[in-house]
Q: What sequence folds into this?
């Protein structure tokens, strides 16, 4: 266990360093002057020069990189060029929307996908399997932004059950805030549930063909008992892997959905920062997202150990 933790910590540090360097370099190579974007194209050259000095853009690449990474290490991500507030404050405000949205979506996706995948595997080749497989294929093919607009038309514009967009803020109360997240969560969850259903079905089918399941059946265990006691637990490792990847995607890849529903989350903040060339916000968000992905992957590795006791008797690594 200690070897696993040490390896993952080293990978965590190296990944963040590589990500920070690549992002910092790309943002400096891209065309466009942040000072000119802030002041406008008609700004005087001396005014632009003064703003560049204030923003630290007149320093060398190495000096800028070291200053930024040094601040990140102590929790200081700098100040947004556009909003003139600390980046950490911006991230905290937007994360209060994106994190619940991602959690709701992954819970809904899991609640739909795992039962559907198990049912499809247990009824292979029959009507239930064909119906679930067809629905999963449709869910994979449908873009989530199209599904989001369809949900708005039906449940917001047509039926008036949920708001079409916007977020009232948690201070407005739990009920209106949760209602504002229902349609975005469904739009995010259904395509992910389709993918997870197919993975669950394949994993369970593969496990059903293994020797220990056939032995359990030969000893008199019913098909249902063999399915839930032996096949499903042993099929969870690939399912947990996909869940980890999906949660990372939902936390970081909600740009389109948050823009469709006008949600003030991390994805929309990243989109706005890129459009406004707010370098410090883009850099910080990408590094934080990379850190979140590495942490989720580490938690997935720990989940492997909890699911499969055989891994705890090995070298301590799950690779």
A:
């Amino acid at each position: 266990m200690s070897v696993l933790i040490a390896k993952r910590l080293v990978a965590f540090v190296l990944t963040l360093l590589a990500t920070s360097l690549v992002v910092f370099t790309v943002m400096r190579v891209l065309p466009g002057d942040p000072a000119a974007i802030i002041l406008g194209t008609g700004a005087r050259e001396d005014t632009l020069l003064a703003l560049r000095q204030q923003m630290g853009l007149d320093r060398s690449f190495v000096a800028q990189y070291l200053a930024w990474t040094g601040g990140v290490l102590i929790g200081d991500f700098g100040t947004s060029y556009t909003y003139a507030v600390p980046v950490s404050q911006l991230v905290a405000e937007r994360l209060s929307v994106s994190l619940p949205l991602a959690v709701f979506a992954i819970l809904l996706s899991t609640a739909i996908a795992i039962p559907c995948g198990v049912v499809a595997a247990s009824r292979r080749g029959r009507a239930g399997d064909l119906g679930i497989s067809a629905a999963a294929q449709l869910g994979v093919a449908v873009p989530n932004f199209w599904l989001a607009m369809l949900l708005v038309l039906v449940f917001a514009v047509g039926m008036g059950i949920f708001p079409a967009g916007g977020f009232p803020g948690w201070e407005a109360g739990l009920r209106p805030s949760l209602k504002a997240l229902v349609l975005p969560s469904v739009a995010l969850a259904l395509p992910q549930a389709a993918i997870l259903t197919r993975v669950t079905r394949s994993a369970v089918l593969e496990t059903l063909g293994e020797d220990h399941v056939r032995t359990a059946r030969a000893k008199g265990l019913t098909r249902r008992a063999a399915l839930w006691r032996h096949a499903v637990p042993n099929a969870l490792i690939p399912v947990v892997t996909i869940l980890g990847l999906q949660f990372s995607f939902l936390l970081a890849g909600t740009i389109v959905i948050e823009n469709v529903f006008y949600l003030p989350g991390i994805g929309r903040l990243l989109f706005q920062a890129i459009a406004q060339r707010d370098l410090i916000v883009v850099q910080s968000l990408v590094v934080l997202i990379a850190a979140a992905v590495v942490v989720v992957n580490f938690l997935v590795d720990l989940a492997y150990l909890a699911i499969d006791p055989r891994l705890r008797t090995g070298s301590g690594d799950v690779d």
Notes: The chain has 14 helices and no strands. The two ends are 13 Å apart (CA to CA). Residues 101 and 181 are 6 Å apart (CA to CA).
